[in-house]
Amino acid sequence: MKSKRESNARFRLVLTLGLAVVLPALTLIIVNFQHVKSIQRDKKVEALIHRDFQYLLSISAKKMASKAYQLTEQARDGFPADSDSDDEKRRKLDEIVSKNPWFAHVFLFDSKKGIILQPQHNPMSERDAGESAKMYSGWFGLEGAYLCDQLRRRPKPIMWMSGEGERSGGMVYMSTAIFSFPELGRDRVVLGGASFDPKYLKQTFFPELLKEVTSQSFTSDPEQLYGQEFHELMPNEAIDHPDKRLAMMIYPSDTFKAEPDRPLAMSAGWGSGKPEVSYKLDDPFRGLALGIKFQGTTAEAISRRWVWQSFLILGVLSVLMIGGLVLTYRSVNKQVALARLKSDFVSNVSHELRTPLALIRLYAETLELGRITTQEKKNEYYSIIRKESERLSALINNILDFSRIEAGAKEYDFRETDIAELVRNTLDSYRYQIEQQGFALEEQIDPGIPAVKVDREAIARALVNLVNNALKYSDNEKFLGVRLYREQSVLKLEVSDRGIGIDRNEQSRIFDKFYRTCDPLVHNTKGSGLGLSLVRHITRAHGGDIEVESTPGRGSKFTLSLPLVNQST
Ligand code: ADP
């Protein structure tokens, strides 16, 4: 009946835990696990990082183009008017090159008047000027009209001629803007142009731009950089990639694969290796590509780390959940067991109270009837009544003490005490009972035990409880040993018997409140399960502790240790 009720309670608990905690938590963990797995399988983190790279590259490309357009348009605005004299035109072109050191040369072609080409004032540009002028006049002489027509159709009347070419310094990347002047009539074939200095592009324009893009984008807020959707799409951890520094490079797109070591420009921290994502540039820098990667890491490594961290977190969560469950289960189990012990306690105590009361009543009534004639018999009855009432008060004292301890209201009255005398007196009042029950009492009190500060009543009660247990739990061999001795700075009080003993597994639990062992003899003996828990409380309050050594069938030895120094006062 009892165990059925308990297993019912346990089943209800498991069901509640299962439905309320385990099921939702487990579902969450599994769903998250699947989610992380799918991210890992589909390489979603890498894809998102690459998409962001692509976006960043396209922005950088736009920036480069708009800067090149801006510089060119600025130069074009300074171009001479059609009505200017040739000298005036030369002067104005010269002014443009002096103001815009990034151009290798500027030129003005008029089908009627030929070409005026103004090189930058440096030896290399001047050396290449004649060759370039020849090339432009030849080309525009043939296709000038067609080019003007083409330019007229464009939203911006600028076209670009870009690519690698032979110069006096070797193979270089060049980009030249060619523009028309829409304000002139359709019959006129007039073209202007400005060619970026290859050295300027390589040494200043590209590096500065790369520096600007890499530093700016990664000190700024990712949300600004990538827009709101970044946060919506990016798994949390991967968001930290803006903290990882980027590196970018510009290289000739068609030759990169064949010659990966020939970049045109690199941002700081590129190190070595290929770009993770590349982007082919359009006009004005056709023929080039932008490449991007992380400094010192890769999208794959970031993704791997993220996946690992996620799995780790999920693992830790699962372990915590299981741990929590086990703890809860154990603590509820304990409560269920305690509830059972409490109900056992009530019935045990009622039994214990009833027996002495019945005896006292029986003997008192017998005496009252006056049927007992011999004084000896009378004395025997008196002593039974006295002993039974002593048993009652011991029990009631235990219960009162216990309830005080439970309420945290138990107070001890520590006084300097001759503990040897205390032990002797306590045993004396039990000696008759002990001997009458057929026990051999071996009392061994070492001489010279110093006085200690203890609560007399409490220590006596502890000893009485231990002695009572020894008497209760002995069957065949009736022996009671009490020893008081000093071991260095510890005072030891030992109570031993040769009774039924205690199973090893139960030895640690006998000091728990209400706990009684499963031995059949214990079940047939009255008891409340409070005695040893009180003894332990008392010894601990004195700064000491209690230990048990016991072998089932051979007997038990309880040892109280009380420290002689550092005593609580
Ligand atoms: P009780 O009122 O049951 O004696 P205690 O707290 O004094 O309660 O003891 C707890 C349990 O420890 C007992 O029920 C018994 O099973 C076991 N026990 C205590 N002392 C002894 C002993 N000397 N020999 C064997 N078992 C003992």
Task: Please explain how this structure is put together.
The chain contains 13 helices and 16 strands. The chain has helices spanning 2-41, 44-77, 86-99, 123-153, 198-219, 222-226, 229-233, 299-368, 375-406, 419-436, 456-472, 520-524, 531-541; strands spanning 103-110, 114-119, 158-167, 170-180, 190-196, 246-252, 265-266, 277-280, 288-294, 415-417, 440-445, 452-454, 479-487, 490-497, 545-551, 555-563. α2 packs across α8 (299-368) and α9 (375-406) packs across α13 (531-541). It has a 5-stranded antiparallel sheet with strand order 2-1-5-4-3, sandwiched between helices. The chain has a 5-stranded mixed sheet with strand order 11-13-14-16-15, with helices on one face. It has a 4-stranded antiparallel sheet with strand order 7-6-9-8, covered by helices on one side. 53% of the residues lie in helices and 19% in strands. Bound molecules: adenosine-5'-diphosphate (ADP). Adenosine-5'-diphosphate binds next to α11 and α13.
SSE layout and pairing:
Layout: H1 2-41, H2 44-77, H3 86-99, E1 103-110, E2 114-119, H4 123-153, E3 158-167, E4 170-180, E5 190-196, H5 198-219, H6 222-226, H7 229-233, E6 246-252, E7 265-266, E8 277-280, E9 288-294, H8 299-368, H9 375-406, E10 415-417, H10 419-436, E11 440-445, E12 452-454, H11 456-472, E13 479-487, E14 490-497, H12 520-524, H13 531-541, E15 545-551, E16 555-563
Parallel strand pairs: 11-13
Antiparallel strand pairs: 1-2, 1-5, 3-4, 4-5, 6-7, 6-9, 8-9, 10-12, 13-14, 14-16, 15-16
Helix pairs in contact: 1-8, 2-5, 2-8, 8-9, 9-13, 10-11, 11-13
The structure holds adenosine-5'-diphosphate.
